[in-house]
Amino acid sequence: MTDDEHFGAFSLEALSDYLDSHRTPVRPDIEGDPVAAAALVRLEALRTASRDLLDTEATNADDRWIAGVLTAIRTTAHAGRDIPVPDADPASTLVVTEGALRGLVRALGDEVPGVVVRRTRFTGDLDVAGGSVDVEVSIVVTADGPVHLRAEALHDLVADAFAAHAPFVVGSLVVRVADLIGGEHP
After folding, report:
1. Does the global pTM surpass 0.70?
2. How far is Cα 182 from Cα 25, in angstroms, rounded to an integer?
3. Between 20 and 30 A from 133 (CA), which of 2, 74, 122, 124?
């Protein structure tokens, strides 16, 4: 990642400094920038995950893993494609962004202890309201508990949330463990 990389109108360093200040005083320019706000959410999740890793004495979180999480911040902080929402009124055009759905998946991942969502990919009929879409979620898991149970827990949460909130039919949903942090496989 280069030093001149920005999230909205703000550098990673500026966003990190703002988080270091516990968002005090509140900066409406940062909070009002949707790309910067999404990056703040990911940075906070990264910090929480890092604290969790330290708490569980998972000290082998290498630079490659951190770089992967930072890459995920860069990729998921953008709104992405507009996905049409089915609506009976032909005069209206409702959409939800990929970024909003990725944010939902990240938030659900934060509910599962020892899991960080690295990436969420959508493939299929994204341009068709109510179309069939395949979802693939890549996660990083700490090795201080049953990995498969964590992946299954996230799978169930995402399946329930998308059944209620996604503007498409989920054709398939796969949760893949992309990396294991903190010791040997459980």
Report:
1. no
2. 36
3. 74
